[in-house]
TrEMBL record:
Gene3D superfamilies: P-loop containing nucleotide triphosphate hydrolases (3.40.50.300). Belongs to the sulfotransferase 1 family. This is Sulfotransferase. Keywords: Transferase. GO terms for molecular function: sulfotransferase activity. It is an enzyme of class 2 (transferase). It comes from Micrurus spixii.
Length: 127
């Protein structure tokens, strides 16, 4: 109905402050186009920041500078051997220290066996 349309138009316009020089009659008659021409926010601002550091792959988020889609795909075909050793730790709980200790145990305490091999080559990270 015409009455409910005018009320809706006034309700819509009351949400937007109008300049005194704005022709209110034109806006009332064109309120629906005003409503549909509102700026659309495509993404939450926090997600713009997150997207700088993370990427989404197969429904999960990963840190950009620590892994890639190729690495993730290679993990899916990773073959576990009977003599594989897994070190699973919480962040900031002494992971590097534990990696070095395990390397020394593996090389029977001979530091010569580990000093020329980088840590990532001695104990690669799956992720």
């Amino acid at each position: 109905s015409q009455l409910s349309r005018k009320k809706l138009s006034k309700d819509i316009l009351s949400a937007f402050p109008l300049n005194k020089q704005t022709n209110k009659q034109n806006l009332l008659g064109d309120s629906f186009s005003l409503l549909f021409n509102l700026p659309v926010i495509h993404q939450d601002p926090i997600m713009e920041i997150v997207d700088q550091y993370l990427f989404k792959y197969k429904g999960f988020y990963f840190v950009r500078n620590q892994t890639s889609a190729e690495t993730i795909d290679s993990i899916e075909s990773f073959q576990i051997q009977d003599d594989d050793i897994f070190l699973i730790t919480y962040p900031k709980s002494g992971t590097v220290w534990t990696q070095n200790i395990l390397s020394l145990i593996f090389y029977e305490g001979h530091r010569d066996g580990t000093e020329n091999i980088t840590l990532i080559d001695r104990m690669p990270w799956l992720e």
